[in-house]
Design brief:
Elements (H helix, E strand, L loop, with lengths): L2 E2 L2 E2 H5 L1 H19 L1 H37 L4 H47 L18 H32 L13
Antiparallel strand pairs: 1-2
Helix pairs in contact: 2-3, 2-5, 3-4, 4-5
């Protein structure tokens, strides 16, 4: 996918991860505050994270296609800026994927264990071993998942900002401050 509506696809697609991944970070922070908010917002935050990560993967792919087209006639300084942006985009894609894995674990693992515990509780007490795994959440699980989510959330946010900044700098960095090109001259 090289173009959308006659325009390069990359600058259009990058807006999905740039908006959705920071929104997912905010959603995760809200989920950390109260267990009721965790239960209420876990599925929407998971969906937003998944769509934002998908956007990061597609943005990196379209960026690689655009990089090949743009580098051909670029100056050495422009090629260096494009390369820095490409590396930042790769890091953003990787951290977005790790953030998605962390959010999936934070949402799905407790949900699955709680579901197993409820199912085991409905079975005849004589047929169920009292120490059966999944009967309750291990005390260490939630804090460990929260740390994993928090670290990947911060990493994802930082790399998205870095990729966005380096992309803007590679496009607009060669213009003098306060000056915009005017094609009407």
């Amino acid at each position: 996918m090289d173009e959308l509506f006659g325009l390069p696809a990359h600058p259009l697609i990058v807006h999905a991860p740039v908006v959705l991944l920071p929104l997912a970070v905010v959603g995760v922070a809200v989920m950390f505050l109260r267990s009721a908010w965790y239960v209420r917002f876990r599925w929407p935050v998971l969906l937003i994270t998944a769509v934002g990560t998908f956007g990061a993967v597609i943005a990196a792919s379209t960026g690689e296609e655009l990089e090949e087209r743009v580098e051909e006639g670029a100056t050495a300084a422009a090629r260096q800026a494009i390369e820095e942006h490409a590396e930042a985009g790769e890091a953003a894609r990787l951290l977005a994927i790790l953030f998605l894995v962390a959010v999936v674990a934070y949402v799905i693992v407790p949900w699955f264990l709680e579901r197993r515990a409820r199912a085991a509780a409905t079975v005849d007490a004589g047929a169920v071993d009292a120490a059966a795994p999944g009967r309750s959440l291990p005390r260490w699980l939630t804090p460990a998942l929260m740390v994993f989510v928090a670290v990947t959330a911060v990493g994802s946010l930082v790399t998205i900002i870095d990729a966005g900044h380096s992309g803007a700098d590679s496009v607009w960095g060669d213009l003098p401050a306060g000056e915009v090109e005017d094609d009407d001259d």
